[in-house]
Amino acid sequence: MAEKIRVLVAKPGLDGHDRGAKVIAAAFRDAGFEVIYTGLHQTPEMIVDAAIQEDVDILSMSVLSGAHMTIFPRVLALLKERGADEIHVIGGGIIPREDAARLREMGVGGIFGPGTPTSEAIEYIRTWMASRRGAPAAE
Amino acid sequence: MPARDTGEIGNPGTTEADVARQEAARLAEGLERRERRAIARAISHVEDETAVGRELLDRIFVRAGTARRIGVTGPPGAGKSTLVHALATLLRQRGERVGVLAIDPTSPFTGGAILGDRVRMPSASGDEGLFVRSMASRGSLGGVSATTHEAADVLDAAGFDWILIETVGVGQSELEVVELADTVLLVLVPESGDAVQTMKAGIMEIADVFVVNKYDREGGDRLVRDISVTLELTGWTRQGWVPPICPATATSGEGVAKVLEETEAHERWLTGDERRRERMRLEKMGRRLRALLDRALVRRVWEQARLEERLAEALPRIAARELSPYRWIASLRLE
After folding, report:
1. For the segment B104-163, what is each residue's pLDDT rounded down to a tens digit?
2. At what angle do helices A68-81 and A97-106 cross, to 10 degrees?
3. Is residue B35 situated within a structural domain?
4. What pTM value is reported for the model?
5. Domain total for chain B?
6. Does B110 share its domain with B22?
7. ipTM of predicted assembly, 2 dp
8. Which B-chain residues 194-233 have CB contacts (< 8 A) with chain A?
């Protein structure tokens, strides 16, 4: 059986808008991914916990509150701490360009701002998975 | 990253089979040490039906079988996730380790799925005694996925005392959970009152414990009455077990302790009679063996007879009705 692409769609922090996250979750499902949706107000600890238990390939977070420079690094650090840093972190929401560049340096993958067509994120995930699965088994 | 699905158990000599065996051994050790990362990877292998997964299941089979497996089923919106969360919380307070498998439907059109049960199951972060895993049904129509049984074995081998299996929202015929659970909780809500009338067969028969959830709503009493009348009419006492009816409000936790109590009473009843227990165990394992054989045969035949390829060849002519599917299948000489 073909391995499914599993994606966690998480909504960290205090902002109460998960419409964007729900839209992206539906788009990912329609692309044939298995999407684990966590709901609102997740702490980095809860998100990493869920990502590990669900054994996802991709961890996607949408941050609108401006807290992205604390949340993304914290999630990356927790993944590393738990030996799960091959889970690929991507993001969306309102993230200024210079912050996005810094997050990429830290190891965040694709960052998709408001108005990005969902197809772009889907294409990004497919390409990334293909390159990873094509590589010799790292584990 | 799971190894590609290339080998079979007992197919030695190839390096890929060796790699699969090593990875399975590593994961089996991880399960024994109860490492969450290993548990999660193991379930993925089992779910994707990889060579590592098969090797691993073979290794852990003798070790699994001690956990209590509880199926939680019912129509969509009945509060299954909330009840599972409430039960898990209660069991964690008693210090018992709980694994949860929550199944949601896969879209038959895209193969994708949204698995949203975690929203109603806020896993206490950092609690090593609780493990929640969402599974997509992946084309299986029985209310669980084809590999849920095996995923439960993984949790079992990882030392969880209880495994709570939440099915997709069911109607009347998604009854497979009965094969993987020792005790089945059927969750209904006052709104399902009228539905009970039509549910006399099938779904009503698989309940070991009825949970009338959202009991505080109007119609709760009537539903309890309807169920008990239906039970009396059908004379349904499964080999001497009369399914209790538990009113509950899972969101507040009210009545959940009673649900757990009745679940444990059912288990005591199950294990109380050695002969009945043995007979039921044989029956269940017999059905599971048949299902496993079916899957293994289907996989083997499709691969060995290169059916995917030949189907693609023949499809245009069959779709144009130039060739009948029956003649084509006979020409494959599968027997």
Report:
1. 989 888 889 999 888 887 656 678 899 999 999 887 877 888 899 999 999 999 999 999
2. 10
3. yes
4. 0.88
5. 2
6. no
7. 0.89
8. none
